[in-house]
Design brief:
mainly alpha; Tetracycline Repressor, domain 2; 9 helices; 0% strand; elongated
């Protein structure tokens, strides 16, 4: 039951952080939403930042896994493999994807560093395979499209195709 409560706290925090922004949601608000004491949240998570880390962990882990898989793929398939995986991570974890784009996260050095590390791995992976004029700009634009563009079940393929076309332009 204890792990169920912690998982419920993470799910609730994820929903609230995505809907209202990290800085607008207090630990007390999350505790009230899960019908627990604030002390219970601090029992499982040492701080609000630690709770945020638990919210973001599956999303960031999936992005790292996708990047590693793409790096192992043949060069010709690397961009599509990586971009597909990143789009799928946004579809799988829509709330976490929204939270990483929250400006308040920039004020949290550990979280910002984790996110920047994951993003730099993806950028590096794409830069290795992208050639031609403006390769860096095209990679950054493709990753921005994947990170911020519309990604629903319906728009997924359009967003992915647009990002891949940016990379494959020579």
């Amino acid at each position: 039951m204890a792990t169920e409560l912690a998982a419920h706290m993470v799910r609730t925090a994820s929903t609230m952080f995505a809907a209202h922004g990290y800085s607008a949601v207090s630990v007390r608000t999350i505790a009230n939403a899960v019908h627990a004491d604030v002390a219970a949240i601090y029992y499982y998570f040492r701080s609000k930042d630690a709770l945020l880390a638990a919210v973001l962990a599956p999303y960031l882990a999936q992005q790292i896994s996708v990047t590693e898989t793409a790096n192992a793929a043949p060069r010709a398939q690397r961009a599509r493999t990586l971009l597909t995986g990143l789009v799928d991570a946004r579809v799988t974890h829509p709330e976490a994807a929204a939270i990483v784009n929250d400006p308040a996260i920039r004020d949290l050095p550990r979280r910002r560093a984790e996110i920047e590390h994951v993003n730099s791995q993806a950028t590096h992976s794409l830069l290795i395979t992208t050639t031609g004029r403006g390769a860096r700009q095209r990679v950054e634009l493709a990753l921005t499209l994947v990170a911020h563009g519309p990604v629903t079940a319906r728009s997924r393929s359009h967003t992915l195709d647009a990002a891949v076309r940016l990379i494959e332009v020579v």
